[in-house]
Design a protein that fits this description.
427 residues, mainly alpha
C-alpha cells in the first residue's frame, strides 16, 4: 500500500475525525437552505432576479460573527461544556427558525422571508463558531489537514442535501414541506453534539470578557508581525472570492438555461456526491504528500478553472438533451472536485493559524473574512450577470482568483502557534 494511502488509513481511526465529518454536515446544511435553494423558490415564485441576487445579504452574520465569538471563548453554558453547550443551543434554535420559513410566501412577503432567513443565518453563524472551535481543539496538529478534508466532505454533504435534495423534493412536494424537512434534519444534528466528547484544551481560557475580546487580535498580530498578519488576512479574503461570486449565481444560471429542477437535482446528487467524495479524499492525500503551500496553489488554480468551465454551458443550451446533460454533469463534477480540494486545504490552513486559547474568536475572525466574498461581494452578482451576460461573468469570476493565488507563496510558510499563555507543556 503506498505510503500516503497507508498513512491516510491509519489516521482515519480516531472517532474525533468522524465527528468532524458529521459536524461539517451540520454547518453545511443551512448554507444552501438560506442561499441557492431559497433563490430557486423565489425564482419559481416570480421574484425579480436582482432581488434574488440581493438575497445573499442574509448571510451577513457569517461576516460579523467575530463580534460575538469572544462570548463563546469566555463563557461556558451550564450544561455540556464550553463548546458543546453553545453548539446545542444554536442548533436547537436554528432548526426551529429554518422550519418557520415554511410559514411564509416569497411572492407576497419576500422581505419578511429575508428577515427570517437573516435570523437563521445568525444562528447558523453561531453554530459555525462552535463547530470550528470544537474541531480545532479536538484534533491534533497532524490531523488538521485530514480532519479539514472530512469536515469539508460533511459540509458539502449538508449543502447537497439542502441544495440538490431540496430541489428534488420540491418537484413533488410543496416548498413549505421541503423546509419543514430541512428543519427536522437540522434538529437531528443535535444528536451528534450530545454524543461527542467535550475537547480537552491545555491552554487556559480567557479570564475576563475584555481578555476574550482584545487579546485574540493582539496575540495574532504580535505572533505574526503586522505585515505578515495583514498579508494573511488579505489572502483569506481573496483566495475564494471568484469561486464565491460564481457560486451565488450557478443555480439561477442553470435554471435560466432551461434545465429542470429534477435534472439539476439528479446531476448534482449523483455526479456531485461522487466527485465531492473523490475531491475530499484526494485533497487529504495530496495534503499529506505535498504539504500546505503546494496544495493551496494547485487547488486554487483548479478552482479558477472550474469557475471558468461554467462559461461553456450556454453553448450546449440548444443541444440534444443527452449532450446538454452530460455537459452539465461534467462541469458540476469538476466544480465539486476542485471546491472540495480547495476548501480542505484552505480550512486546514486557517485552523493552523489559531491559538487554542482564543480558538473561537480567532477562527471566527478568519472565517468572517472568508465569508465576505460570499455575502457582500456576491450581492451584485445578479445585476452583473444581467448586465455582462453569463459567459463574461463566469470568466471574470475566474480571473478574480489571481490575486489570492499570488499570495500563496508568501503566506503558506507561516508557522503554527503554540497553545498560548497558560498552556501546559506538551506531554
Amino acid at each position: 500500500m503506498p505510503g500516503p494511502l497507508a498513512q491516510l488509513v491509519r489516521l482515519l481511526g480516531p472517532p474525533r475525525l468522524w465527528i468532524a465529518l458529521l459536524m461539517g454536515f451540520a454547518s453545511g446544511l443551512p448554507l444552501l437552505a438560506l442561499g441557492s435553494t431559497l433563490q430557486a423558490w423565489l425564482v419559481e415564485s416570480g421574484v425579480d432576479l436582482g432581488a434574488v441576487g440581493a438575497l445573499s445579504l442574509v448571510g451577513l452574520p457569517y461576516t460579523w460573527k467575530f463580534l460575538w465569538s469572544p462570548t463563546l471563548d469566555r463563557y461556558a453554558p451550564p450544561l455540556l461544556g464550553r463548546r458543546r453547550g453553545w453548539l446545542a443551543g444554536a442548533q436547537l434554535l436554528l432548526a426551529g427558525t429554518l422550519a418557520s420559513l415554511a410559514l411564509l410566501d416569497p411572492a407576497r412577503t419576500p422581505w419578511l422571508m429575508g428577515a427570517v432567513a437573516l435570523c437563521a443565518a445568525l444562528l447558523a453563524a453561531t453554530q459555525d463558531i462552535a463547530v470550528d472551535a470544537y474541531r480545532r481543539e479536538s484534533l491534533r496538529e497532524e490531523e488538521l489537514g485530514l480532519g479539514s478534508s472530512l469536515y469539508v466532505i460533511g459540509y458539502r454533504g449538508g449543502m447537497l442535501l439542502s441544495g440538490a435534495g431540496a430541489l428534488a423534493l420540491a418537484e413533488t412536494l410543496p416548498w413549505r414541506t421541503v423546509y419543514l424537512i430541512v428543519g427536522a434534519v437540522a434538529a437531528g444534528n443535535l444528536v451528534v453534539t450530545l454524543l461527542a466528547r467535550e475537547p480537552e484544551v491545555r491552554a487556559e481560557a480567557p479570564r475576563t470578557l475584555r481578555d476574550a475580546v482584545v487579546e485574540p487580535f493582539l496575540e495574532f498580530f504580535r505572533r505574526n508581525g503586522v505585515r505578515q498578519a495583514l498579508l494573511l488576512l488579505s489572502f483569506i479574503l481573496l483566495f475564494k472570492v471568484g469561486d464565491a461570486m460564481a457560486a451565488n449565481m450557478t443555480t439561477p444560471f442553470i435554471l435560466k438555461l432551461g434545465y429542470s429542477k429534477a435534472t439539476l437535482a439528479a446531476i448534482v446528487k449523483v455526479f456531485g456526491l461522487v466527485s465531492l467524495l473523490a475531491g475530499g479524499f484526494a485533497g487529504g492525500l495530496v495534503l499529506l504528500r505535498w504539504g500546505m503551500r503546494r496544495s493551496l496553489l494547485a487547488f486554487g488554480l483548479l478552482q479558477a478553472a472550474s469557475t471558468a468551465a461554467f462559461a461553456l454551458l450556454p453553448s450546449f443550451a440548444g443541444a440534444e438533451p443527452g449532450p446538454a446533460r452530460m455537459a452539465l454533469a461534467g462541469v458540476v463534477a469538476f466544480e465539486n472536485v476542485t471546491a472540495g480540494m480547495g476548501s480542505s486545504a484552505f480550512v486546514g490552513f486557517m485552523a493552523s493559524l489559531t491559538n487554542k486559547r482564543f480558538t473561537a474568536t480567532q477562527y471566527a475572525l478568519l472565517t468572517s473574512l472568508m465569508a465576505v466574498p460570499r455575502v457582500i461581494l456576491s450581492a451584485p452578482t445578479g445585476w452583473m450577470a444581467q448586465t455582462m451576460g453569463w459567459v463574461p461573468f463566469f470568466l471574470l469570476c475566474a480571473a478574480i482568483a489571481i490575486p489570492g493565488l499570488l499570495l500563496v507563496p508568501i503566506v503558506a510558510r507561516t508557522p503554527a502557534p503554540a497553545e498560548g499563555p497558560g498552556a501546559a507543556p506538551a506531554a
